[in-house]
Amino acid sequence: MITQLITKIVGTKNERELKKLKPIVQKINSFESEIQKLSDEELSRKTIEFKERLSQGAPLDEILPEAFAVVREASRRVLGLRHFDVQLMGGIVLHQGKIAEMKTGEGKTLVATLPAYLNALTGRGVHIVTVNDYLAKRDAEWMGPVYRFLGLKVGYIVSGMDDEERKEAYQADITYGTNSEFGFDYLRDNMKYSLEDMVQRDHYYAIIDEVDSILIDEARTPLIISGPSEESTDLYYYIDEIVRKLKKDIHFTIDEKTKSAHLTEEGITECERLLGIKNLYNPRYVRIVHHINQSLRAHHLFKRDVDYVVKDGKVVIVDEFTGRLMPGRRWSDGLHQAVEAKERVRIEAENQTLAMVTIQNYFRMYEKIAGMTGTAETEAAEFKEIYNLDVVVVPTHKPMIRQDFPDLVFRTYKEKLEKVVEEIEENYKKGRPVLVGTVSIEKSELLSKMLKKKKIPHQVLNAKHHEREAQIIAQAGRSHAVTIATNMAGRGVDILLGGNPEGLAKTQLSAEGYDLNEIPERAWNEVLALARQGQNPTEKYPDYWATLLYQKYLECQEDAEKVRSLGGLYIIGTERHESRRIDNQLRGRSGRQGDPGASRFFLSLEDDLLRLFGSDKLKSFMEKLGLPEGEPLEHPWLTKAIEQAQKKVEAYHFEIRKHLLEYDDVMNKQRETIYSQRKEILKSETIRDWILSMLDETAEDLISETIFEEKNISMDALENLKTRVKEVFAFEPVFSEKSFTNKTSLLEELKKQAISTYERKEKLIGPDLMRNLEKYFLLTTIDSLWKEHLLILDHIKESVGLRGYGQKNPLQEYKREAFHLFVELMRKIRETTLSYLFRVELREEAERIQEMVLEEGEIDEKKLEFKREDLFEEKPQAQEPVRSVKVGRNDPCPCGSGKKYKKCCGKESGEKEVEHEMSQM
Length: 921
Prior knowledge:
Blueprint: H1 2-10, H2 13-30, H3 32-36, H4 40-55, H5 60-78, H6 85-95, E1 99-101, H7 108-111, H8 113-120, E2 126-130, H9 133-149, E3 154-156, H10 163-171, E4 174-178, H11 179-189, E5 205-209, H12 211-217, E6 223-228, H13 234-243, E7 252-255, E8 260-263, H14 265-275, H15 286-300, E9 308-311, E10 314-317, H16 335-342, E11 351-357, H17 359-363, E12 368-373, H18 380-387, E13 391-393, E14 403-404, E15 408-410, H19 413-430, E16 434-438, H20 441-453, E17 459-461, H21 466-474, E18 482-486, H22 501-511, H23 521-532, H24 544-565, E19 569-573, H25 580-587, E20 597-604, H26 608-613, H27 616-625, H28 636-683, H29 688-706, H30 715-729, H31 743-765, H32 767-799, H33 810-839, E21 840-842, E22 864-866, H34 869-872, E23 882-888, E24 913-919
Parallel strand pairs: 1-12, 1-13, 2-4, 2-5, 3-4, 5-12, 14-20, 15-20, 16-18, 16-19, 17-18, 19-20
Antiparallel strand pairs: 6-11, 7-8, 9-10, 21-22, 23-24
Helix pairs in contact: 2-5, 2-6, 4-5, 5-8, 5-9, 6-8, 13-15, 15-16, 22-24, 23-24, 28-32, 28-33, 29-30, 29-31, 29-33, 32-33
């Protein structure tokens, strides 16, 4: 009650935020008349003026009002699009490093030009992150003319580009790309052996489009660069055959909520029988147990055409949020191989992690991040907790008049689909466009079959190429259009009532053989701008393409009026998604820019969400009502109950993301240390001092490890020290009697001899080549041992959960072990690098030394030889003298097998006592 009263007096937090923005918007508007008077050249020169002001110490916030006014005028001249006041608000929110929630159709792509231009003036580069390659390229090409008009460079990153193209795109003032491309480039850069090969610059400012999709939906899957491990794939096929013989609820149980499978007591016994082993949970069979569990999940929790498709003999993952295929992405931990075995396709070797970063930790590297989306308010708490991002809901340019009807709930899935088809048919006959959202490929195809039987023409969007997807979704607002799509298909594309004239004209021109590249983008935009203002553009542009575009514009406008009179675009949701945001995104496709529209969700008690997370009261209530077949239940109370179910799932997924982040935070600190060390090595002209420092530390480690007495050091301890020194430094130290007195003098003696040996090696090889070798061996050692370290951490993460049974906090245990492992990793890096450097020798004569340094600054490994038998190989043992002994038939066999002699080497012999040769012990 008190909270409501305070809110009434001072307004909500969002209202207070918007109130602060209004004076800034007024200041931007005050520049408009002055800036409109400038010529094109004078307008573009403003960029140089702003940069000079920044170099003199002016803050960005001081320049903001005039800079935004300049971008607005440039956009009006180049694209024919002028920013509304609410778009200016959105731009200010983004510049402040917050999330701007703006409804679909409010022009978020145009909004991003404002803060992108302002922050690019610093010269440090701005990254604009989109959800797919098509949108990255489209937005860069669409908004590029505005930036170029103002003297800035624009680039974009898409898959398939080589390093030179990527480097050029990152050097631009503003770079568009997807989150995965930016993340993978970061990981790849930290595996490079030369600064010149790195493509990215510093992480300064990122604007994330569809921020909820990237920072929340995709945050459960880390970005991983992996290489194939050497494990055999035969085991997967073998386990798959065994799992096929197990029976559900007898041999194993399934938990659909957590997507896990567990063997029962009967199942364990059956597996032991089928495998021919006595104890399945013997430590030596831990891999087999793991593979059985993964195979059970593959068979009973991962469905074909829902979670994955089989295409060209390969298992391709389907993104659960977008319904798109994700070629190249694989499930980890042997799950992908288990699915391949299930589908009887060729199994690709399991991959080993070479580099990994979570989406959360990648974007937290930026000095400033901001985001925009149509739906962020439901996840505001998570944005604040994980990324320290506030959400500001920006008002719409025109009032929202879409009708959102309550959900209809049916008893069975069949009844629901029949009603959906009936609803589609009714609206199709009227001419009203319908967009149907489904949650999987399988369900969209089932609905498509039912519509074909009714002879209703329609388009189906599931896992197609992004460009074709965008073209189809852009025309989903035409009269009589019926489009079936996964809930997120074509995200980022506007659905215009009556259709998109630009798309229609381009399609026809391409079909008629016109080269669209010959038509200037500015001219194309001007034709549309004049048409929107009610003028005839063909007077200025008499060309055929302009006439066709104007004709399509008029057709679309006429059709739009017809669609508006029918109630606008009708959205039908065939199932509630696990997240309320994705339902809201589907709804948000309708009712853009003050257009009419409607939405309704059709549900059944057999839907996954209601079946797994719905209340039992809901089911019993439906049964008690005794509704006739096909009769739905509609009530606001039902909608509320479904929302509660969704909240449960959202909370569950938030815990998963938080859990992933907590564990990755431990690794992130270690990753930052390793990557910053690599970068420092690459930047340094010489790392000789670094190597000598490593030598000192290693000498101290060897002394601490072998010498326990401070004074009067024993001969045994000294022998142990000599052995370890030879293992690492490849020479046997000679200690004077003075050094025996205490550890400090022994350490000084060891350091002196090690440095002397190293300097001799340096003189022999040559200082220039030695500097290259130092860098090369240190970098390769770091990369090799870091890869092993990641593998060990993966195993610990899997096993540490069991410590909860011992009343220990698994996260704290993981942190403790990870810390000790990292200390050990740093020690190994020092030792291994020094071992390489002390053992390297040249095969060639001195005059051919310089040939060893390749043009790229790398070392030709074929021309190097290592003396490393004392470190990496066992020395061949001297031949032991042989003696003969008498061995009885029931005595243990001397070969060491553990069997009796009569059942081992003496199997063929009938003698009671035999002579057997064996090594002298």
